[in-house]
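dumping the sequnces here before i forget
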Amino acid sequence: MVASYAHPSLRPFPLPPKLPSPCSHLLSFKTLSSLSPTTPTSASADYNHIIQSLCNNGDLHRALHLLPQERHPTQRTYEALILACARRNAAALGAAVHRRLVEDGFDRDPFLATKLIDMYAHLGALDDARNVFDETPEKTIFVWNALLKALALADVAEEALALLREMGRRGVAMDSFTYSHALKACIASSSHPPLAADRVREIHGHAVRRGFESRVHVGTTLVDCYAKLGLVSYAERVFDEMPERNVVSWTAMIACRAKNERPFDALDLFYQMMVSEPDVSPNSVTMVSALQASAGLAALGQGKIMHAYILRKGLDSILSVFNALIAMYMKCGSLNTALRLFDSMSGRRDVVSWNSIISGYGSLGFGAKAIQVFEEMVESGIKPSSITFVSVLGACSHSGLVEEGKRLFDSMSQVYGLTPRAEHYACMVDLLGRAGRLDEAAEIIKEMRIEPSPKVWGSLLGACRIHGRVELAEMACTHLFELEPTNAGNYVLLADIYAEAKLWEEVGRVKKLLEERSLEKVPGCSWIEVKKKIYSFVSVDELNPQIEQLHALLIQLVMEMKKDGYVPNTKVVLYDLDHEEKERILLGHSEKLAVAFGLINSGKGEVIRITKNLRLCEDCHSVTKFISRFASREILVRDVNRFHHFKDGVCSCRDYW
DNA sequence: TTAGGGTTAG
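..and the predicted 3d for all of it:
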């Protein structure tokens, strides 16, 4: 079944019956007024009960008003007050409750200490949380875990690990909660992945020895930690060995694959869960991850099946699911469906919804439209986030809107009070570099107040590739080879630049470096979804059952093109081979095979949608433009950077990409 | 008393 945005289940759900106003079932306003602190109180009034009820109903002020009336507040009363202060982000009131609690002699109570630590952590007052911990004489495991969690989730995860070591020294018996917090601290503690991985492995080993690995929460946290470190096979091993799995464990594993360039395997796992686990029902988070996998594959058919499922289960009322649907349609190139969904959600759009539309327009090459949507977003009262600027600056870059991009970049700090991060500088380098203003791009890097990230140098290198700047490319590579020595893509780009300048000796030198470091170029791969099945192609794909048919079609098309003046762009082939051999390699590029497959196997009027894991090659770009005219077919190719929409012999990028 | 998974970009 195929879902459309107009599915009847999309009609708004009936509103729940109107709730009674807070506390109306407890006390009338008149009764409350009579209980004000200035009024003599009745000895029989149960203030503890009333205060707790007021707190639970969100009426913190009235609860605090009553507190002085109660001579003997109980532990439960203080718990309710602390939780209410945390919920309302009421720092000053929280501190006042804490003072009163101390006066009442509850400062040695480990239960309330746990609640206070949670409250202070929630309010961002870590020193206060630490003080409560220090001043609690009887430190139960709850107290230790509360501080561990507070430190792990704040930007002081190193301190969390120090606390863990202290627990070890003092012989505190850790429980499964301790392990979950400690693992999260490992991820938060280090921006250096190898160090974080060592730490996770160490705690993992510890958990295994103590028998905590079999706990479902610990196993799930381990899956997630390895996922965040990009160690997919470690995550899979933990997941496979879990004695008990629930929907969260399955979702963590699906998300792990979806986020680590394994969208096909993520979908596979999703369907495995649906088929083999009748007791596990996907929830909103599962569907968000599954949609992300469909988006990663640009598998529109799969995405539509999920949309139908989401509607049937009513999960589209959840904003994150709705946003994930918009993103999925955008990444599958279905701009109109994404826009219809976006239009249908007026009033409940958040910054994520807007960002999806801005980046969607950007990647399709509608830069001016992306800027217009950005302005509408600001007008509607939503504050742009750091990601909004990555999206809108990226949109400027794809469309060559240099001056607009510069203006937006300046507004980021001057108007919106956001400090540009490395990724924003990378956008600016890309914007200027693509437009051929490489010296300005290099100047921006020089003036950066923060350390340029690999993305920044990578953007410069990419621009050097487009504009054939050998020396500047070498300079960028001295940084890149140091910062990310194992990223084969940088070596390949440099070799590409040398090859284009016909510096074959230098090409050989870079290839030798790749060999010495045992690095392999990521092979180009393209795929296409036909009748809800995904077919993938690699270069010179001799194992493909239809390869002869595909070749015959491509040879025929190229012959027609040559009559039209087409000259194969053999400079994109990195090897110093003769022209004929280069042409043969060019013809076997995965994206050409996928286009030919689409022509043969899809319906006549259907748009051919192809996805490629790398940047689209220039020769394939020319050939696809021709095919779109010659075969009268719309062809949409999503490469690693953006969309190319081919129609009537023209590409939406207007050859600027 | 406490814990685990997710949406936007690059």
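Residues 80 and 480 of chain A are 54 Å apart (CA to CA).
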